[in-house]
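Appendix B, Record 12. Input sequence as logged:
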Amino acid sequence: MTPVINKLDRNAMAARVARDIPDGAYVNLGIGLPTLVADHLPEGREIVLHTENGLLGMGPRPAPGEEDPELINAGKKPVTTLPGASFFHQADSFAMMRGGHLDICVLGGFEVSVAGDLANWHTGKPDAIPAVGGAMDLAIGAERVYVLMEALTKDGRPKLVRECTYPLTGRACVSRVYTDLATFEITPDGVLARELVEGLTLGDLEGLLGVGLRAG
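Logged structural output:
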């Protein structure tokens, strides 16, 4: 199969997620790729960003040279605050996560199954360092879980799979997957694929991933 040359870059992937977050939503952005979503939120839309280390009202990345070393997200990356932002103990932050107070969380992923199972904290390899953080709490606590990840690994293996092979973060928790090839909706009737990149057909995508898809 001819390699896909029209893949979205990481900022374009994050922008797709940001576009789909509704006005008034309370949202947690996971470590890594999901943090880019903060830089692409539409102007005029009030979205309150939460970070598990104890901040509500997080803004985008600071301009170079304007970083405050004491103002970071859960991934230890510099952030800004928006008017009305608040700080609190990490225990209170986890209570928000576990208590169903977040509308959406955006997480990275190693694998997502067609049933919506998520594996994103450990590859199971002997030399890998487990890093679950608050992912399990978010996966079961947020009303909707969006996963932002590349569709394929560096060696070409699919990350949207029939069944996860890595240790699970949560079962049947993912509602939507955003990738560099397409956006996927996880539904009881199967996986819907929409917004395929230019030049990629549904049949091509099924061939790359090895799972059955329906047009979204």
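The first strand starts at residue 26 and ends at 29.
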